[in-house]
Amino acid sequence: MLACAAGWLLPALALADATADGIAHAKRQIDKHRAKPVFVAPGAAFDARQCAAGKKMLSIPNSSANPFLKGIIKREIEVGKQLGLTVQEWQNQGQPSQWAQGVEFAVRDRFDIVNLISGVDPKTLEPQIRAAKVAGVKTMTSHFYDPSQPQNPLVAASLPVGFNAIGKLLADWVILRSNGAAQIVVIKSSEVPPTEPLLRGLHDELAAHCPKCKIVTEINTGVTEWATKIQPSLQSTLLANPGVNWVIPIYDSMSQFVVPAIQITGRRGKVKVATFNGTPFVLDYVRNGEVDMNIGESLDWIAHATIDGYLRALCGLPVPKDIGVPFYIFDAGNVKDAGVPAQFDQGYGSDYIAGFRKLWGLAQ
Question: pLDDT at position 182, please?
Answer without folding.
Answer: 98
